[in-house]
Amino acid sequence: MTYSPPKLLTFEQFLVEYGDNPRYELSDGELRDMEPTGPHEEVAGNIAGRICTEILLGNFNWLIPKTCLIKPPAAQATALRPDVIVLDKTRLSQEPLWQKEPIICNGNTIKLVAEVVSSNWQDNYARKVEEYAFLEIPEYWIVDFRGLGGLQFIGSPKQPTFTVCQLVNGVYQQQKYRLGDIIVSGLFPNLQLKLDDVMPC
C-alpha cells in the first residue's frame, strides 16, 4: 500500500472551488474541514451578537461581516476563515481585494477574531495563535464550549473554557475563563459576558 499525499491547492484554486463554502479553509495548500455543527454555529452566532451589541453601544466604526477570509501576506497558499471577525471600517479602503471579494490581507484592518473550537482544536490553540499574532490582531478569543483542547491549553480536568488572547509586544497574553467567570476584554472594556451566555441550548 502506498501513501498518496493530499493534493495541494493554490490560494486562487481554493477561491474558485471553495471560496463560497464556509466549511473549508486553506492552510499551506491543504484543504481544512472546519467541521461546523449546529451547536458550533449557535455559539459563533451568540458571540457575534454580543460583540455587535458592544460595537453599537461603544459607537465603534467597526463591522462583523457575514463571511470573510484572511489571506496572510507572507503565506501564499493560506486562507483563514474565522468564526467571527471584527473589521475596522476606516481601513477597508486599503484592502486590495475587498471591493471584489470579502478577503482581508492586512492584519491592521482586523480588531478581533473569535474561533469556536471543534475536533481540530490544535489549529485554534497552536497554529492560529501564531498566525494571528504575526498579523498583529489585537485580540483573539478561543471559545472551547465542549472542553476539547489539550490539557496544556485548558487544564485538568477538561471543562468548557473561554480564552482571551491579548497582543502584548507581538505575543499573545492568554487569560482563561470558566463557566460563571466574567470575561475581560481589552477592546470592549464595558463587556458584560460570561461563557454561560454563549453556550448552546
Explained architecture:
The chain starts with 10 loop residues before the first helix and ends with a helix. The strands form 3 sheets. A 6-stranded mixed sheet has the order 3-5-7-8-9-10. Strands 1-2 form a two-stranded antiparallel ribbon. Strands 4-6 form a two-stranded parallel ribbon. The mean pLDDT is 93. It has one domain: tt1808, chain A, CATH 3.90.1570.10. It has 201 residues and is an alpha+beta fold. It is built from 5 helices and 10 strands, in the order αββαβββββαβαββα. Strand 9 (161-168) and strand 10 form a beta hairpin.
Task: Record keyword descriptors for this entry.
201 residues; tt1808, chain A; 25% helix; alpha+beta; two-stranded antiparallel ribbon; six-stranded mixed β-sheet
Concise summary:
The protein contains 5 helices and 10 strands; from the N terminus they run αββαβββββαβαββα. With 201 residues, the protein is of the alpha+beta class.
SSE topology:
Blueprint: H1 11-18, E1 24-27, E2 30-33, H2 38-58, E3 62-63, E4 69-70, E5 84-88, E6 103-104, E7 110-116, H3 121-134, E8 139-144, H4 151-154, E9 161-168, E10 171-177, H5 195-198
Parallel strand pairs: 4-6, 7-8
Antiparallel strand pairs: 1-2, 3-5, 5-7, 8-9, 9-10
